[in-house]
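Q: A reviewer asked whether we had any structural model of the full assembly, not just the individual parts. We don't, so I'm hoping you can provide one. Inputs are below.
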Amino acid sequence: MARAFYWLLPHPLLTLLLVVVWTLLQNEFSAGMIVFGVILGIIIPWGTSVWWPDTPKGFRLGKMTTYSIMVLWDIVVANVQVAWIVLSVPNSKLKPAWIVVPLELRQPEAITVLAGTITLTPGTVSADLSEHGNSLLVHVLHTDDPDAVRDDIISRYQNRLKEIFK
Amino acid sequence: MSGEIIGTYATAISLLIGSAFIIVGVIGLLKFNDPMTRLHAPTKVGTVGIGMLLLASMIHSFVLGETSVHEILIMAFLFVTAPISAHFIAKVSMHTRTCATPPSPPRDDTWSTLSVPEQELQAEE
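A: Here is a predicted structure for the entire assembly that you could use as a starting point for your response.
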């Protein structure tokens, strides 16, 4: 039974997400569109599961929600800080820096979320991954203390993501 | 004060905040003088700038009585795609060495952008 379920729905969460996205795209709520969304939600994950065989296990949706809200708040705060840097710091006094974040996350999905979070937060851009995925290269726009930025990323984002993707 | 007036003011304020952030982003893009620092400006425009404009659009259609949720989708797609383009611009500037050389990673040999397959190394020798 479970095998039949996972054969038909290799990624149950993706199916749910596709249904929601399809319904939102229609901009109106009707039964026919939801049925069509369910059909798409079954066909697309089933057809693409060859390229994405591993289902991320132990994903915690509740913690992901609080994480997203925290990231949104961080984005707003960082936006104001970076706007101030852009307007007030002259080019000659700007101190950009590379920082290296040691990665403790192993799943590709978790690393993607971490890198995306870092890029979306203004002031930091994730630039590259090391050869075997053990460290993440991050560029910081303006900082006096690169080590503090690195520790902040580890304690604020990575430790939370470790709990989300267990 | 009726809901319509409050809605109009909320729309106007959101538009103003969004445009202000976009202007700051554009100033950053023009002012900074190397590709890596320039890359920081669009991340600001792409998040709060566009976000506030979309919020204004949502409030506006809500006040007119046509609830619109497309904006949430636009935001979601932007949040998913923006880091990828930023990542590729960063990779290009690392490749062309137009930025300061990054420190080498502590646990691996090199960054994946700068890593060269072994056959090519032998061919160069």
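A: Points you may want to mention in the reply: Chain B touches chain A through 47 residues (CB under 8 Å). The two ends of chain B are 79 Å apart (CA to CA).
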